[in-house]
């Protein structure tokens, strides 16, 4: 990733060593970075900085990440918010999504995974920064809601498009059924997790992926696309 697009990321955490570590890594990747040690500072800073992505810790003294997320989204709904939580609890995840969070990571996490999440949110929410995105054998044009596989246009339903796009932009990352449901169907979806299997099966047919070498199933964990 280069800085020619001036992609801005705001890091919010009350632990200085985490802020320093993430800032160093993301600056090295070419992003423009600002840091905030608490929620109120982040909200005020965001007005002028106008970040594309906010990486936001939940557990902070004073104003916690949930309230910070609510205020950030109230002032700028276009920004993507990735919440960091030390607890893998459904209640925290649902609460964050209801307040407008776009993604979440559970501590401890690798820098590579955070970087992949950031790039996924940018491609998903700011496609104009990229135009047509080429990843491996896929080409995605979000403006046309069109995905080409080996230069062949795939005939996809709206949900199939959203699901395949989510798998592609998160390539190399294992995505659980519950995570896929949260993002593609929405946190308030009342159906069964098996709906994900149905749509993955349909995508495999359209991709001629009979051996499941493109969309891989990791038993008990979820799905993953590996791209060259």
TrEMBL record:
The modification 4-aspartylphosphate is found at residue 57. Coiled coil: none annotated. Residues 8-122 form the Response regulatory domain. Keywords: DNA-binding, Phosphoprotein, Transcription, Transcription regulation, Two-component regulatory system. Residues 130-227 form the OmpR/PhoB-type domain. Gene3D superfamilies: 3.40.50.2300, 6.10.250.690, Winged helix-like DNA-binding domain superfamily/Winged helix DNA-binding domain. Residues 130-227 bind DNA. This is Response regulator transcription factor. The lineage of its organism: Bacteria, Bacillati, Bacillota, Bacilli, Bacillales.
